[in-house]
Write a structure and sequence with these properties.
Strand content: 25-35%
Structural class: alpha+beta
Order of helices and strands: EHHEEEEEHEEHEEEEEEHEEH
CATH topology of one domain: Pseudouridine synthase
CATH architecture of one domain: 2-Layer Sandwich
Number of strands: 16
Largest sheet: 10 strands, mixed
Length: 296
């Protein structure tokens, strides 16, 4: 895969490439695994001194896939795809990556898709993960360089994700609000998290977009930090746990048996097109069915 950049100052090739998120590791891969650096069409090395206006091209060799990750053919609901990124609508019931207890995962399906399409890069790069029972938008980079460029956005909290959740509790949930409460591991579990003064800073903001019977609310949530189970822990902490979330005290009697959490909005800056890539997805059927039943 080939990329081009124009030098806007006198500097070394490697300095220009670093400003475009080309890491030392990627440069080493270019040097030793079949890539190429050229300046105005002539092959050069990484310390070549550029003049203003020089055109630098870098050819990145194809990636070898993770051999231990099995490619599994499975239908994908593709929301967006270009040469660098892939966005899918993840269904409920599938973990993002394989583990000791999960082998039929989204990562397996993505690799299966890459194999079927005969893409030159078949390594799976997950940019945004979702829990097994959370539905909605997931973002993938289709090669390591694209992943590196989005990592910068992740670190800067520049990738925006918003979630719909159905919550229920006692009392009145304000029309909008912010939950700032540190989150840490529960003392008696390796799975659950809890609000803990000694935990890591966590911030969640929300807006109520629907109110229904049984004191159920549909909330639109924005994460400002990315702690494990953050939404589930925060809403349980304020007395409004997610429907179906038995791990954190959610109700199981309203027709939904998984945590009622759905990533409906995803936005990131596409560094290759210089455009904002923004995507939305509709509610899942189980959300809709609960809302319809409560409206009756």
């Amino acid at each position: 895969m080939k990329f081009e950049f124009i030098a806007d100052r006198r500097t070394k090739v490697k300095t220009l490439l670093k400003s475009h998120d080309v890491s030392k590791g990627l440069l080493a891969k270019v040097k030793y695994k079949g890539g190429r650096i050229a300046v105005n069409g002539i092959e050069r090395n990484a310390i070549y001194l550029l003049d203003i206006g020089d055109i630098v091209s870098i050819t990145i060799p194809n990636e070898r896939p993770f051999e231990k990750l099995e490619a599994i053919s499975h239908p994908l609901d593709i929301v967006y795809e270009d040469d660098h990124f892939l966005v899918i609508n993840k269904p409920v019931g599938y973990a993002s990556i394989p583990s000791a207890i999960h082998s039929n995962t989204i990562a397996n399906f993505i690799k299966g898709y890459y194999v079927e399409q005969d893409y030159p890069n078949k390594q799976v790069h997950i940019v945004t993960r979702l829990d097994r029972d959370t539905s909605g938008l997931m973002l993938f980079a289709k090669h390591g360089y694209a992943h590196a460029r989005l990592d910068k956005q992740l670190q800067a909290r520049a990738i925006e994700k918003r979630y719909f959740a159905l919550v229920s509790g006692d009392g009145q949930l304000p029309d909008q609000g912010e939950i700032i409460a540190p989150i840490g591991r529960s003392k008696d579990s390796i799975i659950t998290r809890t609000v803990d003064p000694m935990g890591k800073y966590a911030r969640t903001s929300y807006q109520v977009v629907g109110r229904y019977a049984e004191n159920v609310h549909l909330v639109d949530i924005k994460l400002h930090t990315g702690r494990t189970h953050q939404i589930r822990v925060h809403f349980s902490h304020i007395g409004f746990p997610l429907l179906g979330d038995d791990l954190y005290g959610g109700r199981l009697d309203l027709g939904i048996t998984r945590q009622a959490l759905h990533c409906h909005f995803l936005s990131f800056h596409n560094p290759f097109t210089e455009n904002v890539s923004q995507h939305t997805i509709h509610l899942t059927d189980d959300f809709e069915n609960v809302i319809i039943d409560l409206q009756k």
